[in-house]
Structure formats: C-alpha cells, structure tokens
Amino acid sequence: MELASIYLVMAELFLVMLVGYCCQRGRLFPEGTQASLTKLVVYLANPCIILSSVLTDEAMPSAGSIVRLLLLSTACYGVMFLLAWLVVRLLRIEPGQRGGYLCMMVFSNCGFVGFPVVQAIFGSGAVFYAAIINMPFYPLLYGVGVYLLLRDKSARQGDGGAQFHFRWVDLLNPNMIASLLAIAIALTGVRFPALFTDTIQTLGGLTTPLALLCIGLMFAKRPLRYILGTPSLWLVCVVRIVVMPVVLWLGLRLFLSEPVVIGTAVAIFAMPVATMVPLLCAEYGADETTAVQGVFLSTVLSLITIPILITLLT
C-alpha cells in the first residue's frame, strides 16, 4: 500500500505535466500564457502555500522542538550546498549555468511529492514535521537561489558575472516575505480567523497544478531529444535523489532518535528537482532549458530511487 501510494503520487505529477504539454502542442493557449502562469505561481499562489503550511489547527510541537528541527534542517541545506558546489567544480560547469545546477541539486520537490509521500508512509502526524523541516526551503530558494540565478543571468549576458552587483532589494519578493512570516507564526503560535486561513489555503492550492502545467508548457516548446539532457545532468540528478539523502541520513542519525522524524527528513530530501527551479530560471533569466531537463530526469529516476531509499533507510 505504501509503495502503491508513492507511485500514484508520482503518476499524478506526470499526468498534470502531460496535460500542459498536450495543451501547448495543441495550441490551446495563446502566446505568453507560460509567462503569465509563471508570475501567478511565483508571486501569488506560492506565497500562499508557504503561509498555509503553518496556518493550521493541528497542535504544534514546543518552540524548542521547532527551533531544533529548524536548525538541523538549515544545517542539512548547508551540507547540500557544499556538496553541490563540489560537484559543480568537478564537472566544470560554465558560469552561466552554475547557479541553476546548484539549485537543482539543493532544492527538492518536497511540497507536491514530498508531503503526500510522508503522509502515505508515516501518517498525517508526520506532515507537520515535514513542514518544519521544509521551512528553510523557501527563504533559501528565494534568497540564495534567486541570488545564484541572477548571477547566472549576468554571466549569460556576456560579462561572466564580473559586473554582477548584489542588491538586497532583489530578494525582497512575496515568497521571501511569506517565508519569514511563516517562521514567525510557527514560533509564536499566533492563530487567525478561519475565513482568512481558508482563503490562503485555497489560493495556495493553485500552486501545484499551475506549476506542473507550466513545466508541461516548457517541455512542449522543445524537441524531445533535448529533454534527455547531458551526462553531466544525469550525474547531477543522481546526486540530487541518491547521494544527498544518504549523506544527510548518516548525519541526522547522530542528532535525532525518533524514527518518524528521521524517516520524514529522508523522504523530504530524496525528492526530485523542485518544479519551482525552472519557473524561477524563466522569471530571472537563467538557464530554463537545463532546469526543465533536470525536473524531467530526476522525476523519472525517482520512481525507482524513492521507494528503495525509504525502504532501506527508514
């Protein structure tokens, strides 16, 4: 039943992307639809899903437990950034693609795939642990991730990134604001009226289908032979869905004793490349094509690796 649930979730992901692919191939959408949907996801739906992860009636762990998990999760992201940087150096990735490759290896599709898988295997009570573990994802993606993609954009414009000037205002976006608010709400335990939380959750629910439709639209604009990517991209995908979760599992066992929490963390970090990575590449002028290939390849490969990793490591 558990493995069947995992495969059903992965199949749903592919089917929604396939709908977007077919719609684009059939010219159902007018020109510019992808750009409009991308902005809708990045600037409205996704901030709402970030907030909805903490706008819940479920009883939350103590502030100390939340802080502990937050610190461990943040440390895990630090380890992933270090490993990803080493891989980028070893593969000698070009300057205009380094940020995209780093983002693909560090940021997983923990929301759409990770949360349903955690619920199917460990029960609904583990979903909140997944939400806490996932909290650093958004400030890092829309902070460090956007910074790296902006560097890629600068390098792709011909100056090799030498003329890139970091501005804090570039990181001041709705997702970063929502991420910081979510952490504050989780730590303070503030509650809001049901009408407000229901509205936020409804808008957040748009994120998954719209993001997957956008990925399908991106697939449809490229010949199928380009979807398979390069040997370097295959290696990056293996690092994302196999090496990262195994390394983090070895480290987390030293600090955590609860099997459910360790298993939840492994499941979250074993997910394929986040669907938001190619959307942000498109929004900030980075290498969108490679990111789309990474989502496709890692998702296909994860059909095999996720059940094996969760079975062996949990």
Question: How would you describe this protein?
Answer:
This protein has 314 residues and is mostly helical. It has one domain (2-313): Na+/H+ antiporter like fold, CATH 1.20.1530. It is built from 15 helices and no strands. It has helices at residues 2-25, 33-52, 63-91, 98-106, 110-122, 125-134, 137-159, 174-188, 194-204, 207-220, 224-227, 231-252, 259-269, 276-284, 288-313. α2 (33-52) packs parallel to α8 and α12 packs antiparallel against α13. The protein is globular, with a radius of gyration of 19 Å. The model has no long low-confidence stretch (mean pLDDT 82).
Features:
314 residues; mainly alpha; Na+/H+ antiporter like fold; 15 helices; 0% strand; globular
Oligomer: single chain
The biggest beta sheet, please?
none
CATH topology: Na+/H+ antiporter like fold
Number of domains: 1
| Record field, number of beta strands | 0
Number of helices: 15
Fraction of residues in helix = over 70%
Radius of gyration: 19 Å
CATH architecture: Up-down Bundle
Uncertain spans: none
What do the pLDDT scores average to? 82
